[in-house]
Design goal:
This protein is mostly helical and about 450 residues long. It is built from 17 helices and eight strands. Strands 6-5-8-7 form a four-stranded antiparallel beta sheet. Strands 1-2 form a two-stranded antiparallel ribbon.
């Protein structure tokens, strides 16, 4: 599923969507859900993109539409012919292939969006301000009210809290108002032919054809994002095959319909199979004691809330976090000068839907606000800005040269880079919070 930072709310559709506020609101979803490491920044909001944080190689050079179309069309039809042979061998019927590829062309717009990702990034606090904006909270509460009977039934069947299902809906497509109108087969065929991630997109294309062959949706209605994510909660085809359900009982798993029932139930099924525990929090905002050992803020270090309380970690009211939540880790998405969270197993369940920390916190926090919970109270380092892709790669190069190997120079601030940052910070007598900031990069530049 995928793209960061989508379009404006377009207003309520005729069937199955709440009467939403007229205020503009973006979808908060990243592009193709294949990211392997969490990130703390996302591409800047644009009316054409989803607000989902995404991990992407931004180093690809831009190309002109004319040059791409000329080059693409020379080989695209040959590629389609070759692919159809492979698809038939995989069990796709000729009639399905004929219908699916009727009118399909090399889509230069898809390639432009794939290659020309913005270098501008959002900090996590800016991302969360949009994820849990007043408009999105208000619209989420209205969606919860309007679809209450369906959501209650989904919650009973799958054991997934209805508010988190609604929050994913809100971030993925702004409650169904931006589901994408790019033909899925054309988008996936273009990306598979283009070759940058050809194997991945060819697998998605084959899965999409199997969906058509199964009769869940006719080809002309199979639309979504430019990267192949579909429906109210933006499933990529392989995720659809694994998790989509026919909740309405009409014989089709229709996540594209104006009626969001199948899409919302499919999202609940996804979370249920990912280990969601009903009634448990994804995380709790916490206060850290003076002199806190920041090396303990590590996803691999889990303690019971009572154990955390014993070293001074409390909720925002100064009380111990309830022990019934189970063991948790401390997460510092903006380092020691930002908000802190004690995260639990439901954090990992949302993470299966999208691995970016910003997205997981966004879904969790929006679900809390829809329930009537408070805003995040901790301070953020508002004087900071997010590192650009090139600066993140520079940070990794400089850390590695200084003897703190990040293992990869890929611009993704994942666990290996965070560990390298911590090791550098400890060696230099800095707070070892693992925060990859501009100040840290400047420090490395001095060495």
């Amino acid at each position: 599923m995928r793209s960061p930072i989508l379009g404006l709310l377009l207003g309520a559709t005729a069937l199955g969507t709440p009467a939403l506020s007229n205020a503009p609101e973006h979808s908060l979803r990243p592009v193709v859900r294949t990211a392997k490491t969490p990130v703390y920044s996302v591409a800047a909001a644009s009316p054409q993109r989803s607000l989902r944080p995404q991990l992407r190689d931004l180093s690809a050079v831009s190309v002109t539409p004319q040059a791409t179309e000329t080059a693409g069309n020379l080989g695209f039809e040959r590629w389609v012919k070759s692919f159809r042979t492979r698809a038939r061998a995989a069990g796709i019927q000729n009639s399905v292939l004929e219908t699916a590829f009727r009118g399909v062309r090399y889509n230069t717009s898809v390639i432009q969006k794939d290659r020309n990702q913005s270098e501008f990034t959002k900090t996590i606090w800016d991302y969360l301000a949009s994820a849990a904006s007043n408009t999105r909270i208000r619209n989420g509460k209205e969606a919860l009210r309007k679809h209450g009977r369906t959501l209650d039934a989904i919650e009973r069947r799958y054991g997934v809290d209805k508010e988190v299902v609604v929050a994913i809906w809100g971030l993925e497509s702004a409650y169904g108002t931006y589901r994408g109108d790019t033909p899925t087969i054309e988008a996936l065929a273009t990306l598979a032919y283009d070759g940058r991630r050809g194997k991945f997109f060819e697998a998605q294309l084959l899965a999409a054809l199997k969906i058509l062959q199964n009769g869940d949706i006719p080809a002309h209605r199979m639309t979504g994002s430019w990267a192949g994510a579909m429906g109210h909660t933006q499933f990529i085809p392989t995720s659809y095959q694994s998790f989509a359900v026919d909740f309405t009982g009409d014989g089709r798993r229709d996540i594209w319909s104006d009626d969001p029932s199948d899409a919302l139930a499919s999202t609940a099924a996804y979370l249920a199979k990912s280990g969601w525990k009903k009634g448990k929090p994804w995380g709790v905002e916490v206060q850290l004691p003076k002199g806190f050992n920041y090396t303990l803020a590590n996803r691999n270090i889990r303690k019971s809330p009572a154990q955390w309380a014993a070293i001074g970690v409390s909720d925002m009211n100064g009380r111990a976090v309830p022990n019934r939540h189970g063991s948790g880790s401390i997460l510092l998405p903006a380092g020691g000068n930002g908000a802190a969270f004690m995260i639990f197993s439901n954090f990992s369940a949302i993470e299966k839907y999208n691995t970016a920390d910003a997205y997981v916190i966004g879904v969790g926090h929006l679900s809390d606000r829809i329930k009537g919970g408070p805003p995040i109270k901790g301070k953020w380092p508002h004087g900071d800005r997010a590192l650009t892709f090139n600066e993140r790669k520079e940070l990794q190069r400089r850390l590695t040269r200084a003897g703190f190997d990040t293992q990869k120079i890929d611009g993704k601030i994942g666990p290996l880079t965070i560990n390298a940052v911590r090791a550098f910070q400890k060696a230099r007598g800095l707070t070892p919070d693992g925060y990859a900031s501009l100040a840290l990069l400047k420090q490395l530049r001095k060495n």
